[in-house]
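Complex record, two chains
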Amino acid sequence: MSSAPELKATLSLPQTAFPMKANLPQNEPLRLKKWAEMRLYEKLRETCGGRPAYLLHDGPPYANGPIHLGHALNKGLKDFVVKSKTMAGFDSPYVPGYDCHGLPIEIKVDEQLGRKKLEMPAPAVLEACRAYAQKYIDLQTQQFERIGVFGRWQKPYMTMARDYEARTLEAFFGFLEKGFVYRGLKPVYWCIHDRTALAEAEVEYENHTSPSIYVRYKLTSAPEALSPALAGREVYTIIWTTTPWTIPASMAVTFHPDFEYVALATEEGSVYIVAAELAATVVAACKLGSTTELARIKGSELEHSTYKHPFLERSILGVLGTYVTADQGTGAVHTAPSHGADDFYTGQKYSLDQTCRVDSAGRLHADPQAWQLSSPPPFEDKTVWQANPIVVAMLEEYRALLAVSDLEHSYPHCWRCHNPVIFRATEQWFISLETPMKRDDSSETTFRQLTIEEIDKVVWDPSWGKERITNMIATRPDWCISRQRIWGVPIAVFLCEGCNDPIIDPALDKKIVGLFEREGAEAWHTAAISDLLPAGTKCPKCGGTTFRKETDILDVWFDSGTSWFAVCESDADLRSAYQSFQKGKATEVLYLEGGDQHRGWFHSSLLTSVALRGRAPYSHVATAGWTLDEQGRAMSKSLGNGVDPVDIAERMGGEIVRLWVASIDFREDMAASENLMARCAELYRKLRNTFRFLLGNLSGFDPARDRVLESGLLPLDRYMLARTRELTEKILGFYETFEFHRVYHAVNEFAIVDLSSFYLDVLKDRMYTFAPTSQERRSAQTVLWQITEALVRLVAPILSFTADEVWEYLPQVAGREESVHLTLFPKLEAIFSSDPAPMLDEWKQIFAVRDEALRVLEEARQAKRIGKGLEADIEIAASGDLLVLLHRHAAGLKEIINVSNVRVVESAQDVPLDVTALPASGHKCARCWNFMPEVSSYGIWQNVCTRCKNALKEMGINPPAGHEPPEAAA
RNA sequence: CCAGGGAUAGCUCAGUUGGCAGAGCGCGUGAUCGAUAAUCGCGAGGUCGUGGGUUUAACUCCCACUCCCUGGACCA
């Protein structure tokens, strides 16, 4: 290597320490640590103090496992909202929450404890549940922080916290005292072995052999009312069931209103009514022999027909139900309201007796009075399984049994003991949707109606959410809020031993809430009745003096549904902002969750808030779709198509997870896969490189010293500022409407099309070869700086790690914030002072000319007439207004077309535009590679153009001495 | 079965009040070693889910259907 100075060394090539390779998996944790050390979230709260508030209230995820992609999406979107609102000038605190009570955790803990649980005292079981939830709260917190979500992670809200449990109970008492709550029956799955109610999730379907029986019910209403052909005949209908033990509870026979039924006469004279479609199979199964069709009857006409119970003194009512199917059975369904969901609701509709005469151990009990029995029936005190053959025998005895056989079918079993379960109507707590309420103007309405009216005052995004939740509220049954479980907030109410009525006493309620505040929900299990209930308490209804504690707990949806009360109204960091929302419309309160929450959290929160405060708990509800795989299938463990956000963060970076969240329209279903994550990573690299190049070209630029005023900028540079203002305005709008995917696309397009492939490319000549302090170069740097300053802020809510990193490499400015996250979005006028539209319009024409020039150049290149851009000249012939415009911009055309020379000439009248590409004239400058009219030597450097010589002089670089003859090439 | 949503290039998304289908990525291909584990140019790729209707004209408006997704109902 020669020690002679190289010409290349005199160029101002980009220089920056900002690394090209991000190394996100290693570097993100370091940045997280830095943020923690500088207490960034707390600093944000201080900085934002006094600004108008914007509240995003967190829907609590369930703390029973590591986070999945849906969680990452959810928290990512929320983080975008909170950060963008903060940078838009709001005070937007974020208090994350966790849903802790409920079945999934209790089941897990059950599994861990095994049968030991049954002997453990309640507080010990609760302790185990708490520990389980806490473990996953800690894990999820760490995982959410890892993907860059800002929030009060040191102190999230938890539905199992003492004060939260106290507030939940307080909310329940509110319902109770205001008269929303009643106790009623509801059928639930019941395991008679474990003597417990089971939730849907605790039921497993296994094969089971049941007796399948056909039973005839004798018609007692007038046969001729159904059809004249039946007059005087002995008429029956036939029911089919696999649970003979429910026959004593049989209250009705359900027909399908739209089915056609036939009345078939057998040879021995009896007439049987069954569904026409099933007639043949029933006749065969019951061996009815040859039959004659006497009449056809529409199902709806069988309503209010009456029958006699096969062996009890009871009238059975003919009722209608559309759930009757023609797949199996007879089309006439035996209906025991206390032992089936359909049966129960049908029973409600027809006011049938719903009393359950099967006890918690599954033993049947007769009601001798109602049944007019002289002695206990043979099934008295037998379990349902023992009762089956007894009932079959009774049916036989009473000549009602037409057929019996064994049937193996899929039947619900207890998940734990694997015994078959039964349906049993049990007493539950309900909130009535028909509770009378008053509007603000004190007009009368109902809870349901007022809720629907409040829905209308909320902004639903997407808008169809309003219709969806309105439909749900309009048609939903009363809210069953009790669960026969332990892991939850107890329904801390005393029931009279005499009449089973609850004691409703605000003073007592307050006392119990206070107890919960101090000791948590455990207190209900440990406290003695006498400690809480004042001596001498009498039941206001029956005067009873002995009481018991209710052992049910509240539905977990009630827990999370009161978070607006337990958190927004109660937490010191949120209280005042939330109250200002409740008082008027000044403050927005946003709930943002998956669309499934229309029946979940949006729903339960709405109900509790309307009941207790007379209004919705939010002003704005945004919903996300579902995450699917690349083929549009739901993610599932069995398909193995899941994408684990934690894994992606560890391998590619949390930033990539964030970028994926930003890349899709979350309102619809969203595809995710390893492949799509890799795409985001690609794009990330491009963006990062663009930032790197921007920073590299800002080296040596001190805004305070070198910044060029807008009026002094070169036209191209001013144009780019106009573009940047346009982009900024667009992006701020997208943030405003939560269209993050549009931010993503707009930023990409700008970085790739406007910057990388146009402006930055075209600027190289100026940036590299002009003197560093020249006006032209400072003009470009001013704009590059402003673009970077704008872009880094615009991107910060999404690329939170990288933006903050870029921030550290920007030219230092006195008094600037420590982190990009403490800044505000750029102001439009600060980027470009006037409306950018006129300038953008003008440049559209210039770009049309440029496009044509590039096309012609490409053509010439293909024909090998020219090589690269700088080896060509361009001649543009135009006329009229365009010619005037081009003349005005003549000085800049060479740069934007990236050739050595551009000549603008007047074209013949009828040709609007004609572009010609020519081999460049002049000589190639060894320094700037432009073809120039004159090149000569500069010291030992040969073939240097005048422009470069001047630049070198300006840089203070004298012609270097050497042995070469000072002669220029021809 | 009920309610709600979706369908535009291989992928992610644009397509304003109906007027010749767009961008980026990816892919293919060329240039380049002064953004180089980079950068730039060029190219191929869509009957806008299907079938009707309204209109001079439909990706866009109307009707029906198919498929996918979400939530719920149901299996005596």
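Note: Chain A has five domains: 38-171+560-624, 204-415, 492-551, 661-834, 851-954.
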